[in-house]
Every structure is written in structure tokens, then in C-alpha cells.
Amino acid sequence: MGKTLELKLKAGDKAPDFTAATSDGGTVSLSDFKGKTVILYFYPKDNTPGCTKEACAFRDEFAAFKEKGAVVLGVSTDSAKSHTRFVEKYKLPFILLADEDRKIVLAYGAWGEKSFMGMKYTGTHRITFLIGPDGRIKSIWPRVKPAKHALEILASL
């Protein structure tokens, strides 16, 4: 996987607010979800094997997340248009946020050096933040197994 991600934020910190374009053509801010539990998951790229597995796992458990009052938001540096195609192709019932200017990935420390097959590059780390109704970070998952991750979060709610 490459370097261990050095976390910029920790449990108990106030989650950085943001506003971003969405896969459904609108914009949202984290502050729009005040009073709700938010699962903010960062992933590298639409339509890649691991990211598709992770998104589909969140899709498959979406009713259970909703039942627990949790909102699921996916974030990558892909465009809103790319997100719209990804949502339609896999029938994702949650919003994906387009962070093309990298403001959100940088604020959450999800952007950094990675390596794949010996090649070093900069990109989005697969990391998830559980944000409580008070806007504070409750938990952070810095290492994620895409296919099992949604169930792992669900178990912690």
C-alpha cells in the first residue's frame, strides 16, 4: 500500500466544514447535516475496482445506515460529471462530492504520497471519518478494506 498515512485530525476534533458540488447537480456543505451522524469517506477514483467495491458496499448497507440516522457522503477529486455517471452505473443512493480543487482532501489530510507497484505518486488516501451530530469527529478509519468497510462502520454506530 505504501506510506502510512499521518493523520492530520483526531477523534474529538471539530470536523472541517466544506462546500462541494454533488453528483446530483447541487452543492452541499457539511454544516447542512448538523444534528446528524455523517460518514465521510474518501476514495481515490470513480469506476476503479476498489472504489467500486467500497461504494457498492455502502449502497448495499444504505438502508441500515439510514435506519440509524446516518448520512453517507463519498469524496474524491473526480468531477461532478464523473460522479453522476458512477452513481447512475451502480445505482448509488448517496451523494458523492466533487473535490476537484482538493480543498476537502487537504483539510482532512486525505491527500498525500502513495505507492503502487513501486511507483510513487500523489493522490487520495482511502480513509473514513465518522462525524457526530455535534460536528466533531467520533472515529477515523485510516486503513480501509473496500469490501468490508461499510459493515465495519455500521457495527460502530
Observed structural traits:
globular, 157 residues, 9 strands, seven-stranded mixed beta sheet, alpha+beta
Q: List low-pLDDT spans.
A: none
Shape: globular
Summed over residues and divided by their number, the pLDDT gives a mean of: 90
Order of helices and strands: EEEHHEHEHEEEEH
Q: Structural class of the helices, strands and pairings?
A: alpha+beta
Rg over CA atoms: 14 Å
Number of strands: 9
How does the major sheet shape up?
Answer: 7 strands, mixed
Taken as a percent bin, the fraction of beta residues is: 25-35%
Give the quaternary arrangement of the chains.
single chain
Helix content: 25-40%
User: What order do the strands of the largest sheet run in, or round the barrel if closed?
Assistant: 2-1-5-4-3-8-9
User: What is the number of helical segments per DSSP (H or I, 4+ residues)?
Assistant: 5
Instruction: Give the distance, in angstroms, between the N- and C-terminal Cα atoms.
Output: 28 Å
What does this entry look like structurally?
With 157 residues, the protein is α+β, with helices and mostly antiparallel strands. It has five helices and nine strands, in the order E-E-E-H-H-E-H-E-H-E-E-E-E-H. The strands form two sheets. A seven-stranded mixed sheet has the order 2-1-5-4-3-8-9. Strands 6-7 form a two-stranded antiparallel sheet. It is globular. The protein starts with 18 loop residues before the first strand and ends with a helix.
Summarize the structure.
This protein has 157 residues and is α+β, with helices and mostly antiparallel strands. Helix content is 27%, strand content 29%.
